[in-house]
Amino acid sequence: QAFSHFTYYHSDRRMLVCDLQGVLTTSGSPPKFEFMDPVIHYWSRTGRQNVYGRTDQGKRGIHNFFKTHECSELCRMLKRKWCPKWVSSSSSSAASKCSSCGAKVAGLAGSGRQG
Question: Can you list the positions of beta strands (E) in the chain?
């Protein structure tokens, strides 16, 4: 579920990838995961439906995912690492936060680090 949460934030809250199935292929170098049958829920601002196939429930599918999702530490770590717009606090002891999603990260304040 952390990956699904990540796809939602990384797509500017427009899509969510879930229900991934796959296998680890170790016959090549490096080993790789091969995924199949993803469900992609896409929130179209123009009202288009089923953009990614018949399993695409759009905004309703995204909403249903978050009705049952409980963030884990991995969700919070992925959200922090990939948030695009970090805003540093003026206090060096205060936490910085992402201006896009509001995620807070202690220890970035005053560092000038960007996402």
Answer: 15-18, 21-25, 32-36, 39-42, 86-87, 96-98, 104-105
pLDDT, tens only, 84-105: 554 444 444 444 555 555 555 4
How far apart (Å, rounded) are the C-alpha atoms in residues 61 and 38? 13
Dist CA 22 CA 43 (whole Å): 25
Whole-model pTM: value is 0.63
Helix-, strand-, coil-residue percentages of the chain, each rounded to 5: 25, 20, 50
Per-residue model confidence (pLDDT) at position 32: 92
Cβ partners under 8 Å of residue 75, min gap 6 = 1, 2, 5, 6
Which residue is it, tokens 């409980």? 70
- Which residue reads 């695009």 in tokens? 84
Nearest Cα neighbor of 33 from 43, 46, 21, 23 is 23
Q: Let me know: does 45 contact 11? Beta carbons within 8 Å.
A: no
